[in-house]
Amino acid sequence: MNIYTKSNAEYTLGKKKAPLVLKNGRVFNVFTNEIIRADVALADGMIVGIGEYEGEREENLDGRYVVPGFMDAHLHLESTLLNPTQLISQALIRGTTTYIVDPHEAANVSGLDGIRYIIEETRQCRANVYVMAPSCVPSVPFEKSGARIEAEDMEGMLSWPEILGLGEVMDVPAVLNLEDGMMKKLSLFRERGRVIDGHGGSLDERESALCRMAGIRTDHECTTYEDAMREARNGIHILIREGTAARNLTAIVRGILEHGTSTDSFSFCTDDKHIEDIIRDGHISHNIRKAISLGLDPREAYKMATIHTARCYHLDGLGAVAPGYQADLVVLDDFEKVAIHSVYYRGERVQGILPKPCRIPKPLLNTVHVDYPGIEVFRMPLETGRQPVIEVQPGEIVTKLSFEDVPVENGRFAPSDTHQKLLLFERHHGTGMVGKGILKGFSIRGGALASTVGHDSHNLIVIGDDDESMDRALRELIRVQGGYTVVKKGTEPMTLPLEIMGLMTAVPYQDVQKRLKKMIEEAHSLGVPSGIDPFITMSFLALPVIPEVRITSMGVYDTKQSCWYQVK
Hints:
single chain, alpha/beta, TIM Barrel, Adenine_deam, Amidohydro-rel, Adenine deaminase, Metal_Hydrolase
């Protein structure tokens, strides 16, 4: 868009009244760290002046603060459980005007059709939505996902106007081993100057260095300050994640404060965040508020949510309240508390009106195809009591692998307060593949949980201690074609259907929020510890690119040693 026009010049020079002027604001300048008493002149969706201006229309801010619209540097829209138009309408009124979206959840279920659906939906939204082409579908070659996307498929995607870069490169071994398929994907985007997102987290210095040489620019998997600094020293931009299950902000920000580290290489993201948490806590506004509460200079926190992200992703014209920048603004009643008064997108005040969603293609509504052998599959005969155990960690998505003596009765695994059954059913192609494991840390007694949200291949996961409840939970999700369900022994399932690819729903967010809240309470009443979000945590138990151990359709997978263990 050409903003260097005669009319805009007249607005900037004060020769003509601008169409809209926000009067008497306190403008935060991300370039100088100043807060300046000034008016903000707007025209054609852009900022045309900061200073003293008159407008055809004026809004008096009464000394309120004006900051750039917030930017989420990495998120999976599907993880909110809502169709994209609903999610963005809620995050937008909470200040987030720009979204860097990786639709690899949809891609793993429905391939390019899933990505096209996400893009078509986001086109209806009054927000800046950029899409990263999913790089690892499936996340690793042995996974049983609903689709595969190769380098040849990505060549065509590069011409799609919404595609900004390459999504998180989860198959790190393929990068470190210079595998042909991965090298082709990286080359496609690197040679065109596109940003490539990473997925390292706990890499050592040399592994991180090689990822940077491959063209990887960002990482959102760092859980500690030390991990973040190993990456940042190699020129990798750190996206500090604060989602529903993975909450890494406190550890990293405390390290920044303790060591006096520059924030220039840090931004904020949500990655995976449920709608219930967004409604209660906020979106990127929550990241800013939490960082400030830990002692970070508010000006640095706002820059991490705006200009740092814009610079990382080469989004010129976004991330600042300055002439020539897009008029995406957040007006605040309180700078330190991130108390939002109003939000502007392209110079128009956001009203929270929900755009009309696009039509959902029929194949995306019929994606659960399980070849279920019957309740006997849950019996789990054991030859010995010593078995591989997957242990969840509250507040994290990493797990611990241990070998423990588990209860055995009549030659079968007997769940206890400590150990529960964990099964994964392939749900895309009806192969009949079932992976069996033993879970520690959920403490379910007298019931079961099940989900078709299981990163990243999104097969059907069931956890429980009662075979009849587990059988009922599995059958329920086949019946509704995907979702979450919780079954208390002897009762009917409590279910949140996720009819779109088994990942999302078009049901109004208020209903989703209420139902999810009740289901989480029900799961906690079954024994799941209060510090664990049962469904988000369960969804990551199948992701074989995160330490230390995961459940797959082929059994228990040790992500460090790249080997399987069988529960038998």
